Every structure is written in structure tokens, then in C-alpha cells.
Amino acid sequence: MASGNVILNEIEAPLIAKKAKPGQFVILKAGERGERIPLTMAEADPERGTITVIYKVVGKSTELFKNLREGDSYQDAVGPLGQPTHLERVGNVTCVGGGTGVAVLYPITRGLKGAGNRVISIIGARTADRIILEEEMKSVSDELFVCTDDGSRGHHGFVTEILKKVLEEETLNLAVAVGPVLMMKLVSEMTRPYDVKTIVSLNPIMIDGTGMCGGCRVLVDGENKFACVDGPEFDGHKVDFDQLIQRLGAYESEERESSMAHRCRLDR
Amino acid sequence: MIGDGGSSYRRSSVRSDFVFELGRSMAEKEDVTEKWARIGMPEQEPDKRRENFEEVPLGYTPEMAVKEASRCLQCKSPSCVEGCPVEIDIPAFVQLIKEEKFDEAIKKIWEKNRLPAVCGRVCPQETQCEGRCVLGKKGRPIAIGNLERFAADLARREGIEDVSPKAEPSGKRVAIVGSGPAGLTVAADLLARGHQVTIFEALHKPGGVLVYGIPEFRLPKKIVADEIESLEKQGAEIMCNTVVGRTITIDELFDQGYDAIFVGVGAGLPRFMNIPGENLVGILSANEYLTRANLMTAYRFPEYDTPIPRGRNVVVIGAGNVAMDSARTAVRLGAETVRIVYRRSREEMPARAAEIHHAEEEGVELLLLTSPIRFLGDEEGRVAGMECIKMELGEPDASGRRRPIPIEGSEFEIVCDLVIIAIGTGANPLLTRSTEGLELNRWGYIEADPETGETSIEGVWAGGDIVTGSATVIEAMGAGRRAARSIHEHLTREGRSPESCGV
């Protein structure tokens, strides 16, 4: 399924599907020369033996993923990796998602709802057509707020503006935020004064996903953690987001070069 | 671990004191005392090889091999064999080369070693077989590694295959976790004894450290691929992209009917310095740097999609073989300066002398008795420099090496835009933590019987770096060999037929 530059792939991977839990990720590689790309799963169906990922096309690798047609294969898929979300009944929970982060947030929200929590969800995107899984999120939330940057759907503005209101009006026991790093940072800063425990799901640069390369190290409470084996979820109040943002930009110029080279070949 | 020769701050094994014949060309004049003159292996010239990732030593010609083999004294009780972790009958294969029976020579090696093309290249012969050679006492030891490589390469070129008779199928199935040197050896040995093997590999390509760690210029990936293909031809099944401990557990492997399991997952958890600024962009573990270069072929970016940072002024921290591999990779990626920063002196460097020599030939500088204190970054969070302190050596520590002590007030800064940390690895807990009842030592490595590889779980064996910590390819292979023997005994033990197990 493809809508603009947001793509959904349902991938046959029975071994992974059998094991996958909300919050865990897989690493996909399109072809022989491809990169290993970590993506947190949106769905795992052990019956069908499939897993689902939803991602935004941002560079050459996701461009290659996008070009896969129904029936094509990823050359490599490995998982499930990382620690699953800790799903338990804590009371009132808010689930905040931005962009394709909502895909990751959905199974977590469903799990938290299933555990008996009251769930207030807030999802956002730049424009109405980039809002994903609205119906699904609605079905697993007690309340759902939708925000768009341009006001084309729901609240005109950022998810944090709604979150602020929710924090003022409700007594929350847990917040979960998945989306752009800046959004997760802002959510964490906002919940801190209310002392609401906040879980964020990180997606740093990594290669193997098994603790071997150390590329995904994140400073959490002043200590290095590997997102691939210790995460990908961490306490948002303890994550050094500014460092994470810098590290995510490590290969910006190479990414541009790679995309350019790829497009040039396509144009030929 | 990455590489084949121990991490920087760990290995304390003997260092041989003889001089290498490195870099000598075929044109080299023969020594008057011919018996003592070792035939050097031709190599790519340093200036040329700085520009490519092709293999550095070029191999012996048959004439050179025969000549070198002729130097062997054929000792009655050969100490070289004692120095070999897999006990290759060295005098026998050397003699066969001398007699120009090259195909018989390789078969003699295969009796004990399934990966001779690999071992001939990456074994630390100077501390093993060659280190014990009697010739070494008066002159230079026989070039056993070069000869092993010669025989293996010739067999590859001429398509000589191992046709040693295989045992009758036993009907037993063994799961091997990890496709590095230990796992591959277990697979080869068990196949030869008639058992079925399935190798589970976490990465997308089999070979473990041989593919992700050791660079192409030291061990061409084609060689590893060929060895693995040959195992597959013999019936090994290889499941890549399978993380035991995540995708499937040890218990589930037993549920699937495997009669025994060998764990050879390597060490693989990179160590960092834990000093300020270490998370700046441009500071990578050697594991990451080498995996990008080797497994992902990032040195051919953008032809391959995975990028690798190309530093102008590169610093490699640590002085083991992994550090040398990293430094030499950086040279080939176009760095203007590449410096090895090591807190002790040249004497204590854990890398093989041959690797240090190769690195220096290629322009790598050694900044010895120097320890980093902190990394300095620019406004974008990229590494721009490193503050160091000078060290002096005090009394020997637990490792037997003299302890480095900082010299107060000797701090200085160096400019660098890429830092590779090669100070060793620890135990990767991914599999061990998910396996109940598996006893570990206090460093997190698996407790296994050094003779048999048996662990605290019945039916589970372990060997290689996940038992010993960072060691060498051949030591992992030796552990694999011993474990395979023990697994075979276990599987064929009387009264343990499939019926009596209720299978």
C-alpha cells in the first residue's frame, strides 16, 4: 500500500511474526547492495505469518523499499529485535504520535488499552492526508485528538498543544510518545513538570541490531545505552535528545549523495 | 571480537622476538647460509596498496613454495605441531610440498583444518607453529603459514576437492549458533562424522568475524564465501537473519528436535573509553567501522548503499590487530593522517608484528605512551580533536605488562575528525541472557569445559570468543574441533539411540 511518500508493507516472515511484540523492531534490507534499515513494527500477525511496517520515504533505501511491488521480496529481514513495550495497567495513559510514528504507537496503544488503561490518544501530521491509522487509533482509545500543522484536519497546530490541555485537565499515570525526535523531546519536556512517566521509542542509526556495533548508543541518565538491545524504548525524561539529534545527522551529506546518485540513475 | 588477534588491552601471550621477512621481494638476494634464508612472500607495494582494498601478500609461486619447504628439518618430534591449536601434521604437508605433491599436501592439511586458506592468512603463526620451529633458533623459522596458504590457494585454483570418505548418516541433527570460525569448524567436523548440521547466523551473510571484521585486503571475502559454499555442498544448512535469543531460543531449538546445540556467537560487544565527548559524531567503535567497510562494503559507497565516514585526520585508539585493520582501512579510504594512539609502548602492542609493520609501511603513525582524556567537538557535535596525556610505564600489572601511569602536566591536544575505538570487546548478553540455566563467569562469558566445550546445560556446547573472550580465529577453531569431538561422542554414546530417548 502506498499513499504519497508513506508506505505500508505487509511482509511474510512467519518466524518473526510468531515472536514479535509491540515496541519491537526488524531490520530490512532490500537487495544485495542495500543498507540494513531498522523499522519498528506496526503489526505482527502470527496466524498469517506476516509483519507490517509503515515508513516514510526519506532517502535511497526507503526509495528502494517503496519500489518493491506486491509479491516482491526483501532480500533480508531479521527480528524481532529490541525489548518489547512494558504493557501493564497503570490508570490514565496518553499516547502521542507524530507522522509515521503513529504506526509504531498503534500496537502499543492497543496493548495499553487491552491491559485495562484509560487511553487518551493524540496523533498529528503535517497535513490531513498524512494522518495514518486514525480509525485504528480511535478503536483502541477512549479519546482521540487529531492535529495537523496546516489545520486541514482536527486541531490546527501541534500535538503538544493538545497534550498541554490534557495534562492540565487529567491526572495521567503514563505518557507514550512516538514520532519525530523533536516531538518526543517536546512531549518529554512537557510531561516532566507534571511528573508523568514518559516512554519514547528511538530509532538511531545502527547496523546489526544485536549490540555489536554500538552505533545506536544513546545517553540515558548520563549512561550509554544501546537502543538495539536495551531499547528502543527509554524514559523520555532521561534521554539526551540533543545528542541523539546530532547523531542522527551523522551521514546527512552521504545520504544526499546517495539519493542524488540514485535519482540520476533513474532519470537516465 | 573483530579481527583475529586479540583485543588491545587483553592478550598477554608470548611475543616472538625474531624479525620478520616482510616486504621482501622475489628479487631479494639469497643469503649465503641458504638454510636460514626464508623465502619472503611478494607483496603489493605500500604506495600502490594504499589506494586499493586488494590483498597485500600475493602468494608463493610453486618454485618459491618448494624452496621454502625444502628448508624444513623434518624433526622427529616436531614442536611446530604442538604449537598448532588444531594439530595439523605440519612436517608431513611441508614434505609433500617439497616433493611437489601439492594435492596431497592440501589433503594432509584438510585432515585437521577445514579453513586453511583462512588460517594461512590470519593465524598468528609467529606465536604458534612458527614460534616453535627449531630453525627459528638460528635463523628464521619455516614459513608454515605461507606454505599452508599456498597449498590452499592452489587447491582452490585447480578445483581440488575434499573427497575424504564421509561417515554413514547418523540421523542426528545439531544446531550451530554463529557462523564464525568456531561454528564453521564444528559444522565441518560433524558433517564428516555423518551428522546433519544447521548453522544459525544473526547477520545476513555467514562467516562471522571473517566477513564483518577482517578486511578484504587481509582476507578476501571470496575465500570465506568459497569455504562456506563447500560446507553447504557437504550438506550444511545455513539460516541467516536468525538471531538465537530473539528469533528463536535454545529451548525452541531442542523442541524442534535438535539433538545437540553448539554456541559460538563470538564476543562482539564493543567497549568504549567512557570519557567525555565519546558520543560526538565521528567517533565509532572498530566493530561499527569495520562492519560498515567489510560486511556492508561501504568502502564502495555510493555504489553500495551503506556510508562510512571518511576522515581526513584519523585516530585509532588501541593497538591490537583490530586497531591495525581499522587504521589500514582508513588509509585506503583516503585519510591524510592515520595515527594509532596507545597508552603503552611498542613492546606491549598486542597486534601481530606483521600487522604493525604493514600499517607503518602504509603510513600509519604510532603515537605511543599516550592516552586520550576527552574528545573535543565542534558546534555541530562532530569530533574535532582529542585531548591526550603522556604516559610512562611502571611496574608490571596483572597481565604481566608494565602498567601505564599518566605524567602529570603532559596534556596536549591533537586534531582529528574521525576516531575509531579499538580497545576490545566484551561478552554480548543477547543469547546468554535469554537462555535459562546457562552458567556464565563474572565477565558474562559462558562457562564451558576447556577440553570438551560442555556447558551447564545438558546438550549445549560452547566455544570461541563467547567462552574465552577476544582471542584468535585459530583458537576458536581449536575450541570448535574439541566441541565437535565431544558432541560426536555424546551423539553416538551407547544406549542413546533415538528409541531410548523417546524421539
From TrEMBL, chain A:
One term of GO molecular function: 2 iron, 2 sulfur cluster binding
InterPro entries: Cyt_c3_hydrogenase_gsu, Dihydroorotate_DH_Fe-S-bd, FAD-bd_FR_type, FNR_nucleotide-bd, PyrK_electron_transfer, Riboflavin_synthase-like_b-brl
Keywords for this protein: 2Fe-2S, Iron, Iron-sulfur, Metal-binding
Residues annotated for [2Fe-2S] cluster binding in this entry: 213, 216, 228
Cofactors: [2Fe-2S] cluster
Matching Pfam families: DHODB_Fe-S_bind
Coiled coil: none
Cofactor info, note text: Binds 1 [2Fe-2S] cluster per subunit.
Domain of life: Archaea
GO terms, biological process: pyrimidine nucleotide biosynthetic process
FAD-binding FR-type domain segment(s): 1-87
Designated name of the protein: Putative dihydroorotate dehydrogenase electron transfer subunit
Record organism: Methanothrix harundinacea
